[in-house]
Request: fold
Amino acid sequence: MQRGGGHEALRFFLKRIAQFLIVLATTLLGLVAVTFFIGRIVPIDPVIAIVGDRAPPHVYERVRQELGLDLPMIQQFWIYLKKAVTGDFGNSVLTTNPVMTDIANVFPATLELATLGTVIGTLVGIPLGVLAAVKRGTFIDQLVRLLGLVGYSIPIFWLGLMALLLFYAKLGWVAGPGRIDVTYSYLYTPVTGIVLFDTAMQGQWDAFWDAVSHIILPTCLLGYFSLAYISRMTRSFMLNELAQEYVIAARVKGLSEMRVIWRHALRNAAVPLVTVIALSYANLLEGSVLTETVFAWPGLGQYITNSLQNADMNAVLGGTLVIGAVFVLLNLVSDLLYRLLDPRTR
Amino acid sequence: MAGAPSLSQPSGWRAWLLSPEPGSRWQARLGRFYLGWRSFTRNPLAVMGLGVVVLLILVAIFADFIAPYSPVIGGDLRTQRLLPPSETYWFGTDDQARDIFSRVIYGSRITLWVIVLVALIATPIGLLVGTVAGYLGGWVDTVLMRITDIFLAFPRLILALAFVAALGPGIENAVIAIAITSWPPYARIARAETLTIRNSDFIAAVKLQGASTPRIILGHVVPLCLSSLIVRVTLDMAGIILTAAGLGFLGLGAQPPMPEWGAMVATGRNYLIDQWWVAAMPGLAIFVVSLGFNLLGDGLRDVLDPKAAK
Reply:
């Protein structure tokens, strides 16, 4: 673009942002609507849950009115929506805290796990995918493909159990379920809620290494699932790039193969890869429900399953909404990033 | 059936199949199928996947003959509980003294049942939403696709979890929950296919003959969308199996004493360290079956989608 290009780009940017916000708003609204709907089809009568089934009719009626259940559906939804926007999902029956407080307490643990998993998946997955694309059709390519397919096919909870059995119970290389041993859990004060960070900042290195020993197995597991996806996508993006003419041009210029692959081809594949990494991060947040159950990891996933087992619908729906919102946000941000980073989509 | 006339000359059936001038529609179809099959069989992994899927179906049908013991009624609790794998109990026994091998065999029925039901519920929904949106266009398209996108943006397992939590645990509710979360991609595909068909001459011709919109959609658009949708559903099977097993593992799918693989792994979790086989064997079954579907889906895509093949 010539002069005025900056203005044009800004307008494009603002338009994208506006579109993004509209999509975000409708999707989140849909999410709230679905959880509201789920909350209504629960066969448990919320009034009876509070007053008991022997309450006289006038008490029953009063509680029903207090809960707003006598209002028309649409009005109920409006109230629910207003509360959801302010982060008020009611109180958890199980812990008696507001659901949002509970979630704020457990979310860092999930974040820690999913982030480290994505880091592992990215650091291992991209080189593997590049290798598979470069050595296309060879044994290495098949091996990477198989690695990915196994990752797609294996039940995460089962692999977690088997890993615990082997590395914790039989070999004793890592610590077992949980986040940190009780012995160390009072040596540091939780500030951010991210144990590795807190212990390191407070110089509690024994506690830090214990936390590392606890986190290594679940993160490697999540890392593997993220790797399966990332390596597969990297391979297909790289194959696409390696067939382009600029690669031939770079080779004709006499650049080393290493430079052609890593500097030229991978660089162009990087833009769609950003999307893939964001998506895999979102998937890991979701996959954490099963992983956390297996590893007794005190995160959002375990919170949801615990609440499920105790029919604590407020907590379940609040957790669903939070994971859903993060998922939606990551999805949309990755989409936005893709459009912003890749000039071809303009 | 249709191949019957050529059976008299066995050496000629290939020539008949590959004939450049097929005499009938059937011959042409079989010929195309044969070509697809030939390119499919060149991929050993895909054939392996097909083998696993066929095996699953056979095992599910003949479970009564294959399983040596009852999947539900256990043996003597004093002497046959938590026995390691042996010649009598190939996969060992569980905490109720039941033969795990028999339970895994019968579990194949539940897995197959879940897959078939989800496919039968989710595919028509996706097909209908997608074709209607694509064919009608305008605001109908916008609204339907917006709803689809909303559902697509949800994390699948979490949404299924919330649904099952509300509906109550059980295999039927798990199926409904998984189906509710699986249709959006199908709607997208059906819409994309419809958009390419919508403006073709034959649709215009049917319209001129006075066919109603439902008739055009159901009779002329839907059949053409089916094949690409079937590939996509096959590719999704592994995901469906894993989601169902995950729900079972969390105690929200099939309820005891049903021999559902995910629920069996959950039981085995209590005996993980000393009696590993209780959790290991059913999990292995989930893995093998979902790997089979993934391999098959991969192979099918290579055959049916020329873009992915080369």
